[in-house]
Amino acid sequence: RKDSEETRELLKEMSIHESTYQNLQRGLATIRRLPFLVPHTPDNPVKRILEYLDQDINVVLEFGRYTDITAYILVANLLTRRIHAQYRERMEKAIGEDIALPHPLVITIEEAHRFLNPELASQTIFGTIAREMRKYNVTLLVIDQRPSGIDSEVMSQIGTKITCLLDNDRDIDSVLAGVSGKSELKSVLSRLESRQQALIFGHAVPMPVVVRTREYGSPESYKDFIPGGEAEIRKQAEKDI
Fold first, then answer.
1. What is the spatial distance between Cα 233 and Cα 219, in angstroms, rounded to a whole number?
2. Which residues contact 104 (CB under 8 A, 6 or more apart)?
3. Residue 47: CA atoms inside 13 Å, Cβ hemisphere, count?
4. Partner residues linked to 107 by β-bridges
5. What's the pLDDT tens digit per position in 18-60?
6. What span, in angstroms and rounded, lies between the C-alpha atoms of 187 and 172?
7. How does pLDDT run across 211-224, given as a tens digit for each residue?
8. Which PANTHER family match (predicted)?
9. Could you tell me the pTM of the whole model?
């Protein structure tokens, strides 16, 4: 009872409504139940990720058996916020001291609607990166099968788009929002083949262009992509991992 009274006094002092406090308690309880969270770790994962990036090594965040959206948002948002802060600090220091700029960084988000839907975009760091971070050498690569689920403000900040065949009008309108020649591009999209064709348009190309994408997964897929064939590809993959 004494603890309860002290809690009420503290909430009153901090002008926090009791229902807000209870919601916070429930949220923290949900986070505490995530089995991969521990009080202390033997190393600093953010520092290690940055070290990999400095060595031009790709970093993939794989959630494995954890399919809960809470785990996705918590981990991805937490790590990306820290990486974002570090990159911003590095860029500002490099400009101020006239030293080498940090390596350009591309943050790729698969199933992007999980992090960039209208309800969450303003609460995660990814919306900020989409809007502001190009000047800090950080770019967002957004991947999704249903682009209509992504916040329209974020979509408007994506400078170059690569889209395969879409059969949903809302998705098509989302991808083509604000693009000149929308009706012509819509017609092109509707005629794309269902496999290995994509339309590229935006800042990276002088005009919209349809391309045939490289086959994925077979030994022949990348034999011309990296000199040396399959052995060199395997060696490069081991280095990246």
1. 10
2. 137, 138, 139
3. 4
4. 140
5. 788 888 888 788 878 877 777 787 888 878 888 888 888 898 8
6. 10
7. 988 777 776 776 66
8. HELICASE MJ1565-RELATED
9. 0.73
